[in-house]
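JOB MANIFEST
job_type = single_chain_structure
chain_count = 1
residues = 434
[input]
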Amino acid sequence: MASVDTTRNNRQTDKPVTATDGQPNAGKVVSGTRKPMAASGESIEERMRDILRGGGLRRRGVRAPSYDELRPFGHRETAGFPVYKNLERRLLSAVEQPDPEIAHVMATCAAYAYSDPETLSMIMARMGLEDNHCEMIHSSVDAMLISSTAFLVLSRSGRVGILCYRGTEPLNFINWMSNLDVEPERMGYQISDPCATVHAGVYRNVRATRYEIMNALRRACGDRKATGGLSADGDRYGADGPRGEGELEALYITGHSQGGAMAALMGVMIRHERKYRDVLGDRMRAVYTFGQPMIGDPSFAEACQSDEFLRQNVIRYVYDRDVVPHLPSTASGPFRHFGREIHYRVPHLANGILSAIPGTRCASQARRGRWIARRRPTGQMPGMLGIPMAAMSYVARRFEATRALPAMYSIDDHLPQHYVSALTPAGVQNEFGD
């Protein structure tokens, strides 16, 4: 069998910087010239995973592959590729939120944030941001229950930015522990109500990468005082280093699961912390979250609802019986959502009955539903009994005989691919542009 070369793009690479005492960039990861294999026979990707397991702050930037690289056997552009040919223009000119195409782009970005910057930049190029630059910022401190990963995707012109937070990784124990760290904590600055509190685990993980993210956003906005970033070629540069063709004009923030909670909290910080609001307040267009848990108590939610931008432009999508938007449960204390909620309802029983009628069976229609704007946000799960119920629903969805049974809570509905599929507009095949 012929071997397959997995070095997809020689502009994307990993090169660890040797850690030395007193070196400001010690332990950080930057890009350099990609080599197919390390001298020991270990792949670069395996070396990167080993480095990240050691904890600390890491950064890595990549440039997306060109359309010629993404379409080696076909035309550079076709009717379906890229998915949105004028995506940057759409992101810049959208007046009302939510926008259905933008929601699809944000859901796709949030879903692929569970991968690496190479994959995310490739997917966003396929969606329509050709030659984008994607920077990953990661911080981990196991003993502090910190495992925070964010991606900043900038369009080629630099006019559009998408800040995307990675959600809970299924095999990351620290992620799960931070989710459970629900003890209320006051924010470091006042947001209308001085007694308002937020989810401690989410707040800690947002703070872990906040300053690196803000430095990256300052550079995107043309602030030449911002230092320590990555050039398009992956080299570190200072205040006089290269910038995009233009300054950042439109910023979108997104995330799935815990990443959605972090995205919403960052939106709150930008609106209510003066030094952030002065630079980014007019550039932030919307916050799109998918399967987001609650992040604050009722006082915090009410304070956020009193802010017009947060009330109208923080948009939460909830897929059917997704259990996570109901968390934390009432056993952890009072929590409440803020912003606008759009709920996807799937009539499983009706779909199951229709599929059983001879001549009408179509398995692809089993999850077909519709998005509905809700006036009242999803409420907290009473107690903890909903957790095993959600697990049982996941098992039931694996078998055809029980797939159509109604469920109160579902872990299966939390999976990011369901959000991407439900938000894909008619006529769009998939995020790969096939």
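[summary]
The chain has a mean pLDDT of 81.
The longest strand covers residues 133-141.
exit_status = 0
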